[in-house]
Design brief:
This protein is an alpha/beta fold and 410 residues long. Helices cover 38% and strands 21% of the residues. Helix 11 packs across helix 13. Bound molecules: adenosine monophosphate.
């Protein structure tokens, strides 16, 4: 069985066609700059075990409908295609960013589900509208295939009120849905399950801290397999220091910027989301580049890394306290999977909490799942590559096999 995964953004469509028997992507790619004069398409196909051939195209793609048609044409290309007929695609799984309080699990998309995703647009104005466009074009191109929505927020819906409520007037929660939702749920859930299988225990018996460090970054505290807290909030701006996002700041700073620097709301929004984080401190948002400067003793790169890791360490302490007992810490995503330096700084000095990283294992960790704690460490420290698309595909398969059309809507 083959499942197509779609992550539709405002001017892009990211996709993967996954063979569910082999748990492997047959093809993947990205259509970018949709609506611009020249769009950019990168497409990869599996040519041998774990070996992909990459192709790049430039051509105008006026809208998402044409974008998805192009993807289908590439998948069915007579010479380099991976399928011969679009009916081979048994289902389409969509990444949907915000499910609000409506969705605790994935669902087959019906008109009612689309209405619920629309109703959550105020909570994710930049993400839910293009996610809906992706759903509509996929429905028109694959009318035979069930379409499933998998929500970024769903995994965090088990967070108790004491952790999701802000100390604001309660009415703002009741009437306006202002609360912590959390994001990257698919990634946290995926690595938590992987951690359980590599520790040889049921996830239901495990307490974990999962640390997703990509362009966006977030952490989750998972107790007996269920998420009980996460660092992102009502939006993905809260929490850890990110590439260009500030993460936690004093909520009075925007007033100061408006009052004393005359900045508009829009300027402040741009500042906090696009000009802060690593970029704000040292001028670069890509961690690989920040690390290169760090190696050359660049003062601001050093401070950026210190602030970045200190924030993570504080959250480890906080989540350790929230969990009461910790079995494992999991590092994942671009930075978490690849930077031993960052992992080392985040765990430094936590021995009293039973968290002891093994310097050699950390530095020599290869691609794939690695244990990087010492043999004395009470807490396992793991590096686990995330695979959000595979998780979305598995969830999609589960939903279509259970045939639950409206399960999960509350
Ligand atoms: P992601 O959003 O998961 O693709 O992660 C993107 C982030 O991972 C960027 O900040 C990259 O610089 C960072 N990254 C990717 N590879 C490495 C690496 N080898 N070492 C350090 N950071 C990396």
């Amino acid at each position: 069985m083959k499942i197509l995964i779609i992550n539709s953004g405002s001017s892009s469509i990211k996709y993967q066609l996954i063979d569910m028997k082999k748990n492997e992507a047959l093809a993947s790619g990205l259509v970018e700059r949709i609506g611009e004069k020249q769009s950019h398409i990168s497409h990869k196909i599996l040519i041998a075990e774990k070996s992909y051939q990459k192709m790049v195209y430039q051509e105008p793609i006026p809208d998402h409908y044409q974008g998805l048609r192009k993807i289908v044409a590439l998948l069915m290309n007579p010479e380099k295609g991976v399928i011969t007929n679009k009916a081979e695609i048994s289902a389409v799984g969509h990444r949907v960013v915000h499910g609000g309080e409506n969705f605790q699990s994935p669902v087959i998309i019906t008109e009612q589900i689309k209405d619920a995703i629309k109703a959550n647009i105020p909570l994710a104005p930049l993400h839910n509208p293009p996610n809906l466009i992706g759903i509509e074009v996929a429905q028109s191109i694959f009318p035979q295939a069930p379409q499933v929505a998998v929500f970024d927020t769903a995994f965090h819906q088990t967070i108790p009120k004491k952790a999701f409520l802000y100390a604001l007037p309660y009415k703002l929660y009741k009437d306006e849905r202002v609360r912590r939702y959390g994001f990257h749920g698919t990634s946290h859930a995926y690595v938590a399950e992987k951690a359980a299988s590599c520790l040889g225990q049921s996830l239901k018996t495990l307490n974990l801290i999962t640390i997703h460090l990509g362009n966006g970054a977030s952490m989750a505290a998972i107790k007996n397999g269920q998420c009980i807290d996460t660092s992102m909030g009502m939006t993905p701006l809260e929490g850890l220091v990110m590439g260009t996002r500030s993460g936690d700041i004093d909520p009075a700073i925007p007033f100061y910027l408006a009052d004393y620097l005359g900045m508009s709301l829009q300027d402040i929004n741009t500042l906090l989301n696009k000009e802060s984080g690593l970029k704000g401190i040292c001028g670069i948002n890509d961690m690989r580049e920040v690390l290169k400067k760090y190696e050359k003793n660049d003062h601001l790169a050093k401070i950026a890394i210190e602030v970045y890791c200190y924030r993570i360490k504080k959250y480890i302490g906080a989540y350790w306290a929230a969990l009461g007992h910790l079995d494992a810490i999991v590092f994942t995503a671009g930075i978490g999977e690849n930077s031993h330096l960052i992992r080392g700084f985040c765990c430094e000095g936590l021995e009293e909490l039973g968290i002891e990283i093994d310097k050699v294992k950390n530095q020599t960790a290869q691609k794939g799942i690695c244990h990087i704690n010492t043999s004395k460490s009470k807490v396992s420290i793991l590096v686990i590559p995330t695979n959000e698309e595979l998780r979305i595909a598995r969830e999609t398969l589960k939903v279509i096999q259970s045939g639950s059309f409206e399960e999960g809507v509350h």
